[in-house]
Design brief:
This protein has 3 domains: about 60-80 and about 260-385, YVTN repeat-like/Quinoprotein amine dehydrogenase (Methylamine Dehydrogenase, Chain H, 7 Propeller), CATH 2.130.10; about 90-225, YVTN repeat-like/Quinoprotein amine dehydrogenase (Methylamine Dehydrogenase, Chain H); about 420-545, Mog1/PsbP, alpha/beta/alpha sandwich (Protein Transport Mog1p, Chain A). Helix content is about 0%, strand content about 45%. The chain has 1 helix and 43 strands. The protein has an 8-stranded antiparallel sheet, with no helix packed on it. A 5-stranded antiparallel sheet has the order 3-8-7-6-5, with no helix packed on it.
């Protein structure tokens, strides 16, 4: 198994009684029976796969993020899914979709932590670029072979835009966006009042821009323009070409004369974006300024000073705030006054992605450790989780337990394990060792899990060094063995759980290494064995096949 096929991603298990969930993992429901081997496994979980990995929910935000409470912004949840390329929110603000690791499209539920995997195997590699329609029915994603359009409720791939039929260039687009369902303009004829087609998608590559029908994949319109960035608003589309900005406002062509990459006396525009009502156009330039323009008449309204060129920017859904990635974090301005109202300082992390939920209560921030680069982008959710108004309303403590998703996308399985473990990957074999946390000060010296992939054309078999029993745990059939070894004052108690999916076998081998208490002048405290072994149930109860 190649290392780039192994995805390790974090997920916060916020076990909060306020969510109506129990604060401890449910016991594993297992039925034991004698067995010599496991020839078959429970049927693979169908794709999309919805699994409640998380016992509870993210701390619910108390309300919309505003100029007045932005200083109380705090992290609500962490989904450190390695390789996040883009993210979008569904209209209910309770679900978001992330394009991760170049080959997975995942829907995440904030309320219960459920993950839903979309069917992507027939599409090819996914690239940066994701857009969700206003109704939350379709999601479009750029891929190496074109643009895929998925039905969100079913998770199935519905349409692939045939870029080979594009008028000027069949190259893969580098940006896309669903057009607003109702807009009083049409780039096809550049006239106000034209009735738009339903479910239209705008795409851009290095040679052209085009509009497509998401229902049947047909192309409605195209224009040969070398545009480096697009912004879609309620009144028109803005274009960034050669560092200059132009846009259509209800059929009227407007050009801003303040930007150019060809005139050394002018700054070069680098990012553009409309406010939610389409009346403001934000332009970030090469000098570190962000200008807000009146889109209707092209007049400058405000100039915001970021200090360095912004890497990403987004308006809050109400248009009250403008957030931008700059310097060592995320900067927030009052879009009405231009005042810098808050800076989210992240000296060790480099933000790359910003996305407000439609209700304005949650901000998704994709960021990576500055030492690693964008391929390790994590997804964090920020909001106002504490009531600082002086009222006696309920507040929420930080999540009590973090867990990590171990996901082997090549073999097709995943499970959760404690976040404060140490993971060692063995590239040659594709196996792994996870050193698990334990209570120090007792005779227990180490506790670890060995994860082995045992592919075999003859089915799944196990060593005959211990009695074999069969257990069904959360619908997955396991072959269970246990035993122990001793030597030189050391004890090694172990439990092995083996499961199969077709010819694919996976072994989870738990080892508890302790020393003889009689070896000490002062014997250590007695080991709390039930507590130490509880991690086995926690891991097995979250094990799922993904293919």
């Amino acid at each position: 198994m190649a290392m780039d096929e192994l995805v390790i991603c974090l997920a916060v298990t916020a076990l909060l009684s306020a969510c109506g969930k129990v604060a401890t993992p449910a016991p594993v429901a297992a039925t034991l029976a004698s067995a010599d081997n496991v020839s078959t496994a429970a049927a693979p979980v169908p794709i999309p796969t919805e699994t409640d990995y998380l016992e509870c929910c993210v701390r619910p935000p108390l309300g919309r993020i505003t100029v007045g409470n932005i200083a109380q912004l705090e992290m609500l949840d962490l989904l450190a899914i390695e390789g996040v390329l883009d993210v979008g929110w569904l209209p209910d603000s309770e679900h978001l979709i992330a394009n991760i690791n170049n080959d997975e499209l995942v829907e995440y539920s904030i309320s219960d932590g459920a993950l839903t995997y979309f069917e992507t195997s027939s599409f090819g590699h996914l690239e940066e670029g994701l857009s969700i329609d206003d109704e939350g029915i379709q999601v479009a994603v750029i891929g190496s072979t074109g643009v895929g359009i998925w039905d969100i409720p079913s998770g199935t791939l519905e349409e692939v835009l045939d870029l080979g039929s594009a008028l000027f260039s069949p190259s893969t687009p580098s940006q896309l966006a669903f057009l607003p369902p109702v807009h009083p303009w049409s780039p096809a004829d550049n006239q106000a009042g034209s009735a738009p087609m339903a479910d239209e998608i705008l795409t851009r590559n290095d040679a052209e821009i085009a509009i497509w029908d998401s229902a049947d994949g047909s192309q409605h319109w195209s224009d040969r323009r070398q545009v480096s960035h697009l912004a879609v608003g309620l009144h028109g589309i803005a274009y960034l070409e050669n560092g200059a900005v132009s846009y259509d406002y209800e059929g009227r062509a407007i050009e801003l004369q303040d930007y150019s990459s060809e005139d050394a006396t002018l700054p070069e525009a680098q990012l553009i974006g409309f406010g939610p009502d389409g009346e403001l156009l934000a332009v970030a330039d090469s000098t570190g300024d962000i200008a807000l323009w009146n889109a209707e008449d092209g007049s400058r309204v405000l100039t915001l000073e970021a200090g360095v060129p912004a890497e990403s920017m987004v308006f809050s859904p109400g248009g009250e705030l403008l957030a931008a990635v700059a310097l060592d974090g995320v900067m927030f301005w009052d879009a009405q006054t231009g005042e810098l109202v808050h800076t989210l300082s992240l000296p060790d992390m480099a933000p790359h992605i910003l996305a407000f939920s439609p209700d304005g209560a949650t901000l998704a921030v994709g960021m990576a450790p500055r030492v690693s680069g964008p391929l390790e982008i994590q997804l964090q959710l920020w909001g106002i989780a504490s009531d600082t108004s002086g009222s006696t309303g309920e507040t929420f403590a930080p999540p009590a337990t973090d867990q990590v998703i171990y996901s082997d996308s090549a073999v097709g399985f995943s499970f959760l394990y404690p976040n404060d473990s140490i993971l060692t990957l063995f590239e040659d074999s594709g196996n792994a060792r996870i050193d698990l946390p334990f209570q120090t000060g007792t005779a227990l010296q180490e506790k670890y899990l060995e994860v082995d992939n045992l592919d075999s054309d003859e089915g799944c078999s196990v060593p005959q060094d211990a009695e074999v029993q069969e257990a069904v745990i959360e619908g997955i059939k396991f072959l269970v063995q246990s035993g122990g070894d001793a030597g030189a004052g050391n004890y090694y108690d172990w439990e092995r759980y083996t499961t199969s999916n077709g010819t694919t076998c996976v072994s989870l081998f738990f080892v508890f290494h302790s020393t003889n208490p009689n070896n000490y002048d002062q014997p250590p405290p007695v080991l709390d064995e039930p507590t130490e072994r509880a991690v086995i149930d926690q891991i097995l109860s979250t094990f799922v096949w993904s293919q």
